[in-house]
Specification:
Chain lengths: 220, 219
C-alpha cells in the first residue's frame, strides 16, 4: 500500500457545528417566510373572499401562477430579474422574497377557505347583534375559520419549511447546501445526508402529527 | 432598467425545450403510476399488517412526507452512490419521485379506505366473493374515486418536483433550460419561457383530469 496524499478529511465535531449553524439558517429563513407569507396570504384570502368576481379575475390568476410554476424556477427567475430593475439582493434576501410570495399564494387559498367556512347566517347574526364588520371578522370569523383550516395551514407551513431547501440553488448556505459542501470534502455521503434528513424529519414529523391529531379531534 | 432582452436564442431552442418537457411529463407520469401502485400497497400494509413490515411501510411514508423532496433526490443520487449503487439521472429522478408520490398517496389511500364502509366488504364476501375479489371489484374502485383529486394534485406536484432534476444533471425541462441558459447567459429569458411551459403543462394536466373525471364518474 503506497502512501497517498489525500484531499479529504474525516467528519469532525466542528462539521457538526457547521451543520447545526446551517440548520438554524434554514429555520430562520423558513420562519420569516412563513410569518410574512402567512400575513400576506390572509390579506389575499380576505380579498378573494370579499370580491368574488373581481378577485377571481385579477388576484386569483396571479396567485395561481406562483402555485403552478416550480419554486426553483421562480427562485432563479427572480434572482436574475432583480438586478435588471436595479435591486442588489444577496441570495438570502432574494430567496426570502420568493418564499414569502410563494407562501402567501398557498396561504391565500387556505385563508379563503377558512373565511368561507363561517356560515352566512352566523355572520349576519353577529352583525345584527351590533358588531361592526371588523368586530365580526375579529371575534366571529377569525376563531371559527382558524379552527377549520388550522391543520391545512400547518401543512402549508411545513411545506414551506421543506421547500426552503431550494434556496440553496441561489448559493445560500442552508442545511442541504452545507451538507453538500461537507460531502464534497469528507466523502461521508450517507452519514451527512442522514444527519441533514434527520433534522428536517425531527422538525416536521411531530408538528404534522400534532396537526393530524388536532384535525381528528376537531372534526368529531 | 437598462437590460436588453434577447428572446431569439430562446425561440431557436424552443423545439428542444418542448421535447424536454415531454421527458418531464413522461417521468412524472411513470412515477405517478408507480406511486399509485406502491401507495396502495403501503396503505394496505399499514392497515392490515403488524411487525417489521408495517414498521418499514410507516417509515417509508413518514420519511417521504417529512423530508424535503430535494433531500430525497440527493439521497437517491448521492446517498445510494456511497453504497456503490450508481444510478443514471433519469433513474434518480424517477425513483425519488416514485418514493415521494407513494408516501403522499399512501396517506390519501388510507383516508379513502376509511371512507368505504366495512359493511360493503362483508356484503361482497357474503355474496361469495373471495377477499381478493371483494377488494379489487368493490373496495378499490370506490377508493380510487375518492382519491382521484389527490392523485391529480400529486401529478401536478410530481411535475413541479421533477424540476429539481436539474440539480442532479437530469436533462428534463429545467435541466435542458439550464443547459441552454449557461451556453448563452440568457438566464432570465430561458427560465421565463420555461416557467410559461410549466404553467401550461400544469393547466393541461388539470384540464385533462377534469375531462377524464366526467368520463370516469358518470354515475
Amino acid at each position: 500500500m503506497q502512501p497517498t496524499a489525500t484531499f479529504f478529511s474525516g467528519f469532525t465535531l466542528n462539521d457538526l457545528w457547521f451543520l447545526g449553524e446551517a440548520a438554524l439558517k434554514s429555520l430562520w429563513i423558513s420562519i420569516l417566510a412563513i410569518a410574512f407569507g402567512s400575513a400576506m396570504g390572509v390579506v389575499f384570502g380576505w380579498l378573494l373572499s370579499v370580491s368574488h368576481r373581481a378577485g377571481a379575475l385579477t388576484l386569483a390568476p396571479v396567485l395561481d401562477v406562483f402555485r403552478s410554476v416550480p419554486l426553483i424556477i421562480q427562485l432563479v427567475l427572480f434572482f436574475n430579474f432583480a438586478p435588471m430593475i436595479g435591486l442588489r439582493l444577496n441570495p438570502f434576501e432574494a430567496g426570502l422574497i420568493v418564499l414569502i410570495v410563494y407562501t402567501s399564494a398557498n396561504v391565500a387559498t387556505v385563508a379563503q377557505a377558512g373565511i368561507e367556512a363561517v356560515g352566512g347566517p352566523m355572520r349576519r347574526a353577529a352583525r345584527s347583534l351590533g358588531m361592526s364588520y371588523w368586530q365580526d371578522m375579529r371575534y366571529v370569523v377569525w376563531p371559527i375559520g382558524l379552527r377549520a383550516v388550522f391543520p391545512a395551514w400547518i401543512g402549508v407551513a411545513l411545506g414551506v419549511m421543506k421547500d426552503s431547501a431550494l434556496v440553496s440553488v441561489l448559493g445560500y448556505v442552508e442545511l442541504l447546501k452545507a451538507s453538500q459542501i461537507l460531502i464534497t470534502r469528507t466523502q461521508e455521503t450517507f452519514l451527512i445526508l442522514a444527519i441533514a434528513g434527520a433534522f428536517y424529519f425531527a422538525l416536521s414529523y411531530p408538528i404534522s402529527h400534532y396537526a393530524a391529531r388536532l384535525e381528528k379531534r376537531w372534526t368529531q | 432598467m437598462d437590460y436588453n432582452f434577447h428572446w431569439r436564442p430562446v425561440l431557436k431552442a424552443l423545439p428542444e425545450l418542448l421535447e424536454a418537457s415531454l421527458l418531464t411529463l413522461q417521468v412524472a407520469a411513470i412515477s405517478i403510476v408507480f406511486g399509485i401502485v406502491m401507495g396502495l400497497g403501503l396503505s394496505l400494509i399499514r392497515l392490515h399488517m403488524t411487525g417489521p413490515v408495517k414498521w418499514l411501510a410507516s417509515a417509508w411514508v413518514e420519511l417521504a412526507r417529512n423530508t424535503p423532496a430535494l433531500f430525497q433526490l440527493f439521497f437517491f443520487g448521492f446517498g445510494l452512490g456511497s453504497f456503490g449503487l450508481h444510478l443514471s439521472p433519469y433513474m434518480i429522478v424517477l425513483l425519488a419521485l416514485s418514493f415521494n408520490n407513494a408516501g403522499y398517496l399512501a396517506e390519501n389511500f388510507r383516508g379513502g379506505f376509511g371512507a368505504v364502509p366495512e359493511t360493503q366488504f362483508r356484503a361482497s364476501r357474503s355474496l361469495g366473493m373471495t377477499a381478493f375479489q371483494a377488494y379489487t371489484r368493490i373496495v378499490i374502485p370506490q377508493v380510487l374515486r375518492i382519491v382521484y383529486l389527490p392523485i391529480t394534485n400529486q401529478m401536478v406536484w410530481a411535475v413541479l418536483i421533477s424540476s429539481l432534476g436539474m440539480l442532479v444533471g437530469f436533462r428534463e425541462l429545467s435541466g435542458e433550460t439550464q443547459f441552454f441558459a449557461s451556453k448563452t447567459f440568457r438566464i432570465f429569458e430561458y427560465f421565463a419561457v420555461t416557467a410559461v411551459i410549466y404553467y401550461v403543462i400544469v393547466k393541461l394536466i388539470l384540464g385533462a383530469s377534469r375531462l377524464l373525471a366526467v368520463r370516469l364518474f358518470r354515475y
